[in-house]
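Hypothesis: this fold can be encoded by more than one sequence.
Test: take the structure tokens below, design a sequence, compare later.
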């Protein structure tokens, strides 16, 4: 319970989370903040926010309703407010901007980093953009227009223009002094970029190298000229992969004229990797990109993103039903076959999903290339046969108990075949989609399962139709 005494209130708020806590109950914290604000106890909230990390404050603001969130945001000093604002979901940012006066919006934009400012501008309705833009300084307006012009999903859309440049003729001492001077306005100074008179990228030098170099050494003597870079129209995914591959703190981005226009920092690359991973998980579940968090997504949006593939897969399952209908006579003669049907087709689907998951991930990370398909196919056949044999032995005992030796033989042989076919479908479909320029993540568990189910039904009853009459005849002859 929150007491009227401000000291008691602050102590109880601090009991919810301490600086450095990895996690705490955000919903409980937001409820406590709401009660304080309702009583007018803004001092306790303001003092508690001073103890918290910006990301934790943003999580609390995201849980509050709009009036409480706007009031809580106003309690944070402007510079820190811009940092907190950058952690908020884009939808909540747009909501809060709508509650601010134009002067407050301009101050907030001025304190935000260039890339986050451009992202926020893109998230605003057009009438809000028109309200904000004239009040900004010309340099900020041009920067927003430029950063906002790049297509979503490209390196240009996630880069920042707040990077440090140095002249090649500066000494190491002069370069360090220059970086100290510009540091407050730059995203990072751990890497500085050397450009020529036309702003073409010619080299990069790290702050560490400048510090350990002789003070009189020229930047041109220290810098690396073999620079890893991205182009503005490269995918954001490929840019993030370069940062991870080459262990970079930032990746320079150049335009069509090879001029340096921005950088992508390692923390931005982490955000990209998280977003790409989320998209891939959605595709594995045959769900389109949401463009919002699951918590904030509307019912209609979730319906739109899920309905297409579910309807497609419904028609895909018709093939399974048609296969069962085709073998009605066999089923009627050996009703025990029905008992094993779910077990067999699920085994094929599960094996296919495993193979597809491994292959999609390997293709996404570059561990496997298109040229590796033949070698991977041979190995997958070996693995699938071993898996199928083990599973066949396991199910054969149940087959003897439930249907006798003849049914056990059919079930065991079918198990080997469906695991083999399911595994090969799961392994091959991502390659096929990649060759057709589709995202291999589309080879998702529901899609693989639907194909494997139809194949499993046909394989099972085809084997039963061929073997059972022969086995029955052999049994009669032996009798």
């Amino acid at each position: 319970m929150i007491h009227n005494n401000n000291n008691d209130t602050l102590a109880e708020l601090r009991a919810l989370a301490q600086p450095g806590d990895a996690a705490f109950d955000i919903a409980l914290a937001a409820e406590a903040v709401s009660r304080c604000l309702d009583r007018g106890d803004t001092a306790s909230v303001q003092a508690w926010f001073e103890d918290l990390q910006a990301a934790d404050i943003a999580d609390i603001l995201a849980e509050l309703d709009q009036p409480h969130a706007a009031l809580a945001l106003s309690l944070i000093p402007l510079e820190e407010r811009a940092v907190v604002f950058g952690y908020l979901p884009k939808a909540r940012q747009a909501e809060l901007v709508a509650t601010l006066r134009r002067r407050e919006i301009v101050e907030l934009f001025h304190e935000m980093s260039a890339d986050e400012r451009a992202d926020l501008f893109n998230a605003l309705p057009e009438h809000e953009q028109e309200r904000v833009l004239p009040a900004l300084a010309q340099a900020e307006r041009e920067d927003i227009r430029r950063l906002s012009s790049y297509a979503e999903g490209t390196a240009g859309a996630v880069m920042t223009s707040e990077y440090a440049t140095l002249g090649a003729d500066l000494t190491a001492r002069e370069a360090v002094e220059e970086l100290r001077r510009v540091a407050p306005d730059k995203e990072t100074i751990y890497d500085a970029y050397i450009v020529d008179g036309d702003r073409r990228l010619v080299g990069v030098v790290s702050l560490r190298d400048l510090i350990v170099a002789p003070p009189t050494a020229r930047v041109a003597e220290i810098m690396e000229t073999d620079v890893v870079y991205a182009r503005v129209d490269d995918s954001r995914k490929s840019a993030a992969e370069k940062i991870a591959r080459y262990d970079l703190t930032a990746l320079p981005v150049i335009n069509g004229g090879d001029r340096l226009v921005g950088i992508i920092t390692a923390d931005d690359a982490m955000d990209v990797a998280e977003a790409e991973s989320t998209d891939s998980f959605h595709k594995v579940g045959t769900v389109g990109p949401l463009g919002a968090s699951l918590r904030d997504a509307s019912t209609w949006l979730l319906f739109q993103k899920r309905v297409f593939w579910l309807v497609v897969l419904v028609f895909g399952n018709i093939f399974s039903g048609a296969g069962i209908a085709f073998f009605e006579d066999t089923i009627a003669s050996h009703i025990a076959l029905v008992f094993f049907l779910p077990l067999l087709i699920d085994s094929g689907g599960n094996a296919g999903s495993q193979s597809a998951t491994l292959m999609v991930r390997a293709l996404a990370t570059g561990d496997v290339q298109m040229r590796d398909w033949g070698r991977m196919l041979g190995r997958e056949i070996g693995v699938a046969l071993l898996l199928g044999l083990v599973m066949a032995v396991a199910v054969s005992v149940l087959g003897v108990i439930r249907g006798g030796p003849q049914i056990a033989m059919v079930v065991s042989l079918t198990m080997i075949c469906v695991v083999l076919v399911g595994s090969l479908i799961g392994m091959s479909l991502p390659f096929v989609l990649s060759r057709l320029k589709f995202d291999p993540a589309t080879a998702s568990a529901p899609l693989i399962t639907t194909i494997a189910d139809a194949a499993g039904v046909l394989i099972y009853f085809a084997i039963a139709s061929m073997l059972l009459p022969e086995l029955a005849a052999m049994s009669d002859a032996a009798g």
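The radius of gyration is 31 Å. DSSP finds 24 helices and six strands in the chain.
Hypothesis status: open.
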